């Protein structure tokens, strides 16, 4: 499975961004997908996750009510997962990574429970 992340950028506090993660390869339509973020000062932290059908979602407390994760399968056997980020805060700054696994992770917030990772996309929120 290959993961391609995009959509980062620079935005002022209170603004919005939408990140995309496109998964391709065998079994990509059955993936659970999550977003993590990392800064030089912090370990990689869980942001949000969604199961393969889109019916189960999980959010870090810090983003509940502000971020929405969704997923869609395309006809060419690709899955795209979106992270709509609203009311952004400076503390949301970091390199954002998408991660995927063939089964729903036992622990959404544990990076080790994911097999596949995309490259990061930088999100910078200015105050």
Notes on the structure:
The protein contains no helices and eleven strands. Strands 2, 4, 5, 6, 9, 10 and 11 form a seven-stranded mixed β-sheet that branches. Strands 1-3-8-7 form a four-stranded antiparallel β-sheet, with no helix packed on it. The N and C termini lie far apart (37 Å). 0% of the residues lie in helices and 53% in strands. The protein is globular. By secondary structure, the chain is an all-beta fold.
Summarize the structure.
This protein has about 130 residues and is mainly β.
Features:
127 residues; mainly beta; 4-stranded antiparallel β-sheet; 11 strands; globular
Number of helical segments?
Answer: 0
Q: How far is it from the N-terminal to the C-terminal residue, by CA? A: 37 Å
Structural class based on helices, strands and sheet pairing: mainly beta
In round numbers, the mean pLDDT is 94
Query: Would you identify the regions where 5 or more consecutive residues have pLDDT less than 50?
Result: none
How big is the Rg?
Answer: 14 Å
Number of strands: 11
Major pleated sheet: 7 strands, mixed
Q: How would you spell out the order of helices and strands?
A: EEEEEEEEEEE
Oligomer: single chain
Secondary structure: helix percent: under 10%
Name the overall outline.
globular
Give the percentage of residues in beta strands: over 45%
């Amino acid at each position: 499975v290959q993961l391609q992340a995009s959509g980062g950028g620079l935005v002022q506090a209170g603004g919005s961004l939408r990140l995309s993660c496109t998964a391709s390869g065998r079994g990509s339509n059955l993936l659970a997908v999550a977003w993590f973020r990392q800064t030089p000062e912090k370990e990689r932290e869980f942001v949000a996750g969604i199961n393969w059908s889109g019916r189960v979602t999980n959010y870090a407390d810090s983003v509940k009510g502000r971020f929405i994760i969704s997923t869609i399968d395309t006809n060419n056997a690709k899955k795209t997962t979106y992270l709509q980020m609203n009311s952004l805060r400076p503390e949301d700054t970091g390199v954002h990574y998408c991660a995927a696994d063939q089964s729903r992770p036992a622990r959404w917030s544990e990076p080790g429970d994911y097999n596949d990772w995309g490259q990061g996309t930088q999100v910078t929120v200015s105050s």
